[in-house]
Amino acid sequence: MRLAKEVNIMANPKELELLATGKTLWNNWRRAYAEIQALEPDLHEADLHDADLKEFDLLNADLTGANLRGADLQGANLREGDLRNADLRGANLSDAVLVKARLRWADLRGANFCRANLKGADCSYANLRGANLDGANLDGVNFDGAHLSSSEVGDADTIRASR
User: Fold this and answer.
1) How far, in Å, are 19, 21, 78, 127 from residue 147 at the CA level?
2) What domains can you pick out in the chain, each with its CATH number?
């Protein structure tokens, strides 16, 4: 897996090393040590731009302020993840699970959320300009103060999205 050359030392270095080993080892570690899953992976402020995180288990991960610009998070489990102030510009989050994720103040410009499940997510004050939300589940999403002007909602489930 490609990680940025310079990794911000704010994140847990051991967890970043394990993340860099690839999806199989990371996901096996997450399953093998399920009893410590209350301690979410500490990846805050990590530089993971352009990283291949496709189908990674990032349940409850602390990714506050992380640089995920251009990252491939297709099918990733980001349920209840903390992505406040994260940079996800141009990231691929298609088919990702973001149920109850915290995306407050995140930069989501141009991100692809096709068929993503954002049920109950907090997208307040997030910048979603140019984001693709086609087919996304937006049931109960908080969009208070969010920038949605050019977002492509398409067939997104917006029936109960709050704004």
Assistant:
1) 32, 36, 22, 5
2) 1-163 (2.160.20.80)
